[in-house]
């Protein structure tokens, strides 16, 4: 554990926040409260409810899926996670696949060789993702509370007490075993547990506009940097396009008024033309930060998504990283709450996801800095890197693996099989199904070289475990976690070894 005590945002008269000295009784506890109903919170809450964990989702905004979103891309690893929940095909039907990336005006990266069922980027606005995730969460029985703002939080050895303000301004206390903050960059949960958010603003006065275009761009994603200007154009799918632009010499406050002429000018400088943009339905400014919380867990409180890390939009990794945080944490919380795993399992969330967040900060920041290179030595570095990636296939595969998320692996105990901690690609099973179909419902999947009756015993284990055979001739047995990573592997294991692995990981 990274700590046992959180602090309230308001001064606490109790000098020892581990002790609850209030004379009033604690409210009836619930297993998990999730704060923030963006994509990360929706996926996490839906996973918990699907696993039979009662979960309350708090959101300070009214109930409305907003189309004013910044995220526009789903990467291969995220699509795999959504496939394991039966959601990917619905999103593929409304999104637009992109099978290659063009970086720095010279480097073209073909995504077709990606070792994934989803060997492309899927371009679609964030609100389409939220629609699908919210529908799943509602069907699973998540308790939604909109227009409910967290005002304070205190935890003790047995749980967490959350103070909230409801739609009418009424105060209420809620009690949970665990709380997860998925409430964005200005996270009230992160503030309440006293965690800093170190980092800095990297790009200021980024402009956003949703516009109609008189001329359709030649490519699905249009992006370029020239001189002091950068611009990006992507389709919403409803006739409107999202334009993101930045000019190095325009450093103004986010509150500074923005008009369409400024967006047009930046676009012309970066892309050579403004595509006849007109009829903006929404415009705004924002600044892009690089920040990461030093811990994703403090006692019984966790952070995920933008509450834990924020970075530049380069590479489209923001929403994707948050969704993968949720996929990692959800099955672990469910296992602990349902008494199938030791609470020590929750420590692995920090160990596995914090390094990934740090890596995303570095890669997205590097892309932005190279895209905006201006000095001779940085231009030379960009040219050299572009040539290197274009010529050296292993380096190119590694870079693509980081951006798409399929290249990450998690730490494994010393002496583990070489596959432990690695992502498992979708694979055909002997019964005609696929691995990611077998993972649905938050189940572990044991894939064996031959039919095995062992490993399914134990009270209730069959509800959490699917046993399958390889469709091909393989001798390695794999125990795949609900998030699609290898929990345990062995070459030609005996039944006793399999049973020991299942007892350790499935419970």
How would you describe this protein?
- With about 500 residues, the protein is α+β, with helices and mostly antiparallel strands.
- A hairpin with a 2-residue loop joins strand 13 (about 220-225) and strand 14 (about 230-235).
- Mean pLDDT is about 85; it is low at about 1-25.
- The protein is about 30% helix and about 25% strand.
- The strands form 5 sheets. Strands 1, 2, 8, 9, 10, 11, 17 and 18 form an 8-stranded mixed beta sheet that branches. A 6-stranded antiparallel beta sheet has the order 13-14-15-12-16-19, sandwiched between helices.
- The chain has 12 helices and 23 strands.
- The chain starts with about 30 loop residues before the first strand and ends with a helix.
Short synopsis of the structure:
With 507 residues, the chain is an alpha+beta fold. The protein has helices at 39-50, 76-83, 88-94, 126-140, 188-192, 260-271, 318-337, 347-371, 376-391, 393-404, 435-438, 495-505; strands at residues 29-35, 55-59, 73-74, 96-98, 100-103, 107-110, 121-123, 143-146, 149-155, 160-165, 171-181, 199-212, 222-226, 229-235, 241-247, 278-292, 297-298, 301-303, 309-310, 444-448, 465-469, 476-480, 486-491.
């Amino acid at each position: 554990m990274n700590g046992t005590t959180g602090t309230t945002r308001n001064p606490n008269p109790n000098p020892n926040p581990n002790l609850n000295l209030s004379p009033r009784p604690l409210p009836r506890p619930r297993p998990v409260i999730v704060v923030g109903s963006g994509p990360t919170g929706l996926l996490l809450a839906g996973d918990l409810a699907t696993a039979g964990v009662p979960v309350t989702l708090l959101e300070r905004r009214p109930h409305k899926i907003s189309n004013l979103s910044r995220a526009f891309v789903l990467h291969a690893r995220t699509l795999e996670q959504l496939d394991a929940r039966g959601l990917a095909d619905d999103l593929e039907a409304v999104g637009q696949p992109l099978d290659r990336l063009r970086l720095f005006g010279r480097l073209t990266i073909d995504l077709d060789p990606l070792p994934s069922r989803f060997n492309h980027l899927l371009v679609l606005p964030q609100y389409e993702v939220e629609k699908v995730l919210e529908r799943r969460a509602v069907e699973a029985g998540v308790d939604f509370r909109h227009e409910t703002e967290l005002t304070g939080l205190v935890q003790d050895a047995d749980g967490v007490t959350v103070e909230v303000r409801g739609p009418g301004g009424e105060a209420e206390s809620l009690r949970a075993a665990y709380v997860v903050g998925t409430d964005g960059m200005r996270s009230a949960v992160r503030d309440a547990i006293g965690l800093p958010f170190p980092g800095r603003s990297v790009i200021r006065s980024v402009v956003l506009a949703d516009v109609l275009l008189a001329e359709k761009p030649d490519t699905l994603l249009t992006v370029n940097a020239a001189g002091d200007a950068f611009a990006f154009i992507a389709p919403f799918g409803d006739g409107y396009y999202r334009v993101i632009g930045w000019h190095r010499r325009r450093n103004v406050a986010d509150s500074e008024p923005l008009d369409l002429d400024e967006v047009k000018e930046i676009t012309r400088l970066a892309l050579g033309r403004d595509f006849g943009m007109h009829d903006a339905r929404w415009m705004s400014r924002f600044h892009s930060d690089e920040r990461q919380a030093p811990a994703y867990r403090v006692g019984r409180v966790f952070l995920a998504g933008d509450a834990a890390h924020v970075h530049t939009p380069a590479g489209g990794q923001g929403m994707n990283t948050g969704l993968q945080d949720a996929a990692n944490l959800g099955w672990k919380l469910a296992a602990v709450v349902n008494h199938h795993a030791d609470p020590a399992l929750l420590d692995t969330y920090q160990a596995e996801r914090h390094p990934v967040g740090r890596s995303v900060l570095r890669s997205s920041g590097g892309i932005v800095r190279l895209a905006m290179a201006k000095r001779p030595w940085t231009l030379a570095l960009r040219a050299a890197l572009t040539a290197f990636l274009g010529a050296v296939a292993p380096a190119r595969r590694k870079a693509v693996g980081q951006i798409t998320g399929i290249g990450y692996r998690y730490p494994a105990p010393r002496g583990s099989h070489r596959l432990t901690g690695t992502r498992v690609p979708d694979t055909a099973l002997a019964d005609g199904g696929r691995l990611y179909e077998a993972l649905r419902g938050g189940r572990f999947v044991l894939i064996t070289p031959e039919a095995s009756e062992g490993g399914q015993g134990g009270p209730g284990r069959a509800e959490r475990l699917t046993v399958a055979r390889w469709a091909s001739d393989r001798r390695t047995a794999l125990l795949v976690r609900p998030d699609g990573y290898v929990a345990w592997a062995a070459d030609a294991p005996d039944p006793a070894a399999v049973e020991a692995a299942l007892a350790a990981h499935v419970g």
